[in-house]
Amino acid sequence: MTATFGGRTRGFTESVIRGMSALAREHGAINLAQGFPDFPAPDLLKEAAARAIADDVNQYAITWGSRRLRDALARKYAEWYGMAMNPETDITVTCGSTEAMVATLMAIVEPGDEVIVFDPFYENYGPDAILCGASLRHVPLPMGAPLDLERLAAVFSPKTRAIILNTPANPTGRVLTREELGAIAALCQRFDAWAVTDEIYEHIRYAGPHVPMATLPGMAERTVTISGASKTFAVTGWRIGWAIAPAVVSGAIRKVHDFLTVGAPAPLMEAVAVALDQLGSEFYGRLACEYCGRRNLLHDTLVASGFRATLPDGAYYILADYSALSELPDDRFARWLTTEVGVTPVPGSSFFSTPDPARRLVRFAFCKREDTLLQAAERLRKIP
Ligand code: GLN
Question: Under 8 Å CB-to-CB from 106, ≥6 apart: which residues?
Answer without folding.
Answer: 131, 132, 256
